[in-house]
Amino acid sequence: MPKIIYNKYDKSKIPALPQAKFQGRIIVILTSGETEKAVNYLLTRDILGFDTETRPSFTKGRQHKVSLLQVATPDTCFLFRLNHTGLTPALIRLLEDTTVKKVGLSWHDDLASLHRIGQFNAGWFIDIQEHVREIGIEDLSLQKLYANLFSQKISKRQQLSNWEADILSDKQKDYAATDAWACIQIYQELMRLKATHDYQLMQEDNHQNETSIS
């Protein structure tokens, strides 16, 4: 039976969905030496999920620098605490790499944030938002895309937490790892659906609350 997906997912349905959570290893990176070892490992993988976190500012006109770079494989996620390490030579090597596929969501914004703390020439990066419309999905947020494709919710409760805290909480680590890992899951499912056409697109009319099949 073809998978049912929607051009626009109803956000009101998300709270009732079961929660998605990364189940693999989460490794926090605090030093330049740890960064080198982590990057060497990551560059042996076939695909990586990327995301960043920045300490929120509640003062108008004030913006903090990016605090965290999370990079996931399907079973391991490294949390690079950039407020401790900065962009080390190893991280620049990772960001400039052109051999390993790196997947993110709205990744151009993340690259801009990273460029504010160090100079590098971005390597092989794929932005999921550039692919979703190919199968008729109009939503661009991670939470809606994951709900649409997998009928599970990704919690955003930690999004506005302090990413420069001395020690990240378990909830923060789970949140950060899940976001990076979810990028891999979404990208691979989009590619599968695009190749197999094993889906039925439901057109949601937001004005008339009607649904049609295409």
Task: Outline the fold blueprint.
Blueprint: E1 3-6, E2 25-29, H1 32-42, E3 47-54, E4 66-72, E5 76-81, H2 82-85, H3 89-96, E6 101-104, H4 107-115, E7 125-127, H5 142-150, H6 170-196, E8 199-205, E9 210-213
Helix pairs in contact: 1-3, 5-6
Helix content bin: 25-40%
Strand order of the largest sheet: 2-5-4-3-6-7
Globular, elongated, flat, extended or rod-shaped: what is the shape?
A: globular
Residue runs with pLDDT of under 50 for 5 or more positions? 207-214
Structural class by secondary-structure content: alpha/beta
Major β-sheet profile = 6 strands, mixed
Feature tags:
6 helices, alpha/beta, 214 residues
Textual characterization of the structure:
The structure is a single chain. The chain is α/β, with parallel strands linked by helices and 214 residues long. 32% of the residues lie in helices and 22% in strands. A hairpin with a 3-residue loop joins strand 4 and strand 5. Helix 1 (32-42) packs parallel to helix 3 (89-96) and helix 5 (142-150) packs across helix 6 (170-196). The longest helix is centred in the last third of the chain and has 27 residues, at 170-196. The chain is globular, with a radius of gyration of 18 Å.
